[in-house]
Amino acid sequence: VRVDEESEQAVQVAFTVRTLKTPFVLERTLRLETNDPTLYVTSRVENESDVPLRAMWGEHLAFGRPFLDQTCRITVPDRLTIHPNQEAETNDRRLALKSSTWPYAVGAKGEEIDLSRLPEPGEPSDWAYLSGFTDGWYEIEHPEKQIGMRVEWDAENMPYLWYWQEFNGLTGYPWWGRNYVVGLEPHAAIGTGALAVSVNAFANFAGYARAGRVRWRPAILFAVIGIVGAAIGSSLGKVFDGQRLLLLFAILMVVVGVLMLRRKPQPVGDPNMVAGGRISVPKVTGAALSVGLLSGFFGIGGGFLIVPGLLFSTGMPMIAAVASSLLSVGTFGLTT
Q1: What is the tens place of the pLDDT at every residue in 196-222?
Q2: Which of 32, 115, 166, 208 could form a disulfide with 323 if both were Cys (CB 3.0 to 4.6 A apart)?
Q3: Phi and psi (nearest 5°) for 264?
Q4: DSSP readout, 169-210?
Q5: Cβ proximity of 316 and 277 under 8 Å
Q6: Which of 200, 154, 193, 155 is nearest to 54 (CA)?
Q7: Among candidate residues 131, 126, 129, 130, the one with its CA nearest the CA of residue 95
């Protein structure tokens, strides 16, 4: 923490932190000036390494009790587009997967929902993205309490607004049915979920392929067969409750971890593991179908499943399994 200014005219404080797993330094400066009700927030990120890195920046602004209730109103610039989050497709969501013009969204049952108004507690949770900002601002006010606030930002750097909602509807972790909250968060990009995973996987796969790490025959067979399982699993996952999916996913991770610990390492020099070596098509097919089904069911790229699947069905070395798995990660992500 650093106090940059403390006078009768203004107070300015800076907060700095270094990230643990990435070489970034983040600094946020807060400033208040005399006779001005505005809180000025300046954020800065610095890459301390010589390696070019990409990052998505967003501001995590959320509003809740006692300020927030169903009488509050949200105002944004005219003619913004509402994009419901594609990754939240469950049977208890509030919004349909159809874009629309603010403030009216299409409800899960085809009804019209005014997102500028907040519902009674107990409505399903959901989130969407707003795009089309030329000027970055929104207002949220409580007419009865005669209090509100306006948030402004640089729309050129952060052209999207994430709008997420939790109306006491989620009874599991981390909410437990206790929170009536909305988030209105300026962001540099729209979250792309499985699509981003796919693009990243294919990019890394190309690097491994150039290095000769990919075992092409099992990689292609696993990806092609796995697509079928992923398509089936994706359809099944959409009819399951989100909390049950979370529990099943946790159990699956434990099972995979135990199996990996019990696995006997395959000698790197095994003659069957060369790039053009023999594979058991039935074993690879069965593993690919199973892994694809689970990946689609849980809506994930499935890397932590595909690598064990390749290891157990072919016995290839770990580095080859990691490299070969990325073809399936990319294709599964596009399928789900």
Answers
A1: 667 777 878 888 888 888 999 999 999
A2: 208
A3: -90, 125
A4: ---STTTTT--EEEEEEEESS---THHHHHHHHHHHHHHHHH
A5: no
A6: 200
A7: 126
What's the pLDDT score for residue 5? Answer: 95
**How many residues make up the chain in this entry?**
336
Cβ-Cβ contacts under 8 Å for 257 (sequence gap 6 or more): none
**Which of these, 103, 298, 97, 302, lies nearest to 198 by C-alpha position?**
302
Burial (CB count <10 Å: 0-12, 13-18, 19+), residue 289: buried
Beta strand segments in the chain, E: 2-6, 10-18, 24-33, 39-47, 62-63, 73-75, 81-84, 100-101, 104-106, 112-114, 126-131, 136-142, 147-153, 160-167, 180-187
Arithmetic mean of pLDDT over the chain: 83
Measured N-to-C along each axis, helices 281-298 and 303-314 cross at an angle, to the nearest 10 degrees, of 170
Residue with tokens 């469950």: 90
How many whole angstroms separate alpha carbon 56 and alpha carbon 225?
34
64, 179 in Cβ contact below 8 A?
A: yes
Q: Are 25 and 48 in contact (CB under 8 A)?
A: yes
Do you find a cis peptide bond into 174, omega within 30 degrees of 0?
yes
Q: Which residues pair with 81 in a beta bridge?
A: 101, 131
The whole-angstrom separation of Cα 238 and Cα 139 is 35
Whole-number Cα distances in Å, 17 to 23, 49, 58, 153, 220 = 11, 15, 16, 22, 44
pTM above threshold 0.70? no
The whole-angstrom separation of Cα 152 and Cα 76 is 11
Task: Tell which residue, 153, 270, 174, has the closest CA to residue 215.
Answer: 270
Q: pLDDT class for 228, splitting at 50, 70, 90?
A: confident
> What's the rounded Cα separation, in Å, for the pair 300 and 244?
16
Strand ranges across the sheet with 136-142: 73-75, 136-142, 147-153
Identity of the residue numbered 204: N
Q: Which of 82, 88, 76 is nearest to 100 (CA)?
A: 82
What is the rounded CA–CA span in Å between residue 290 and residue 222?
Answer: 10
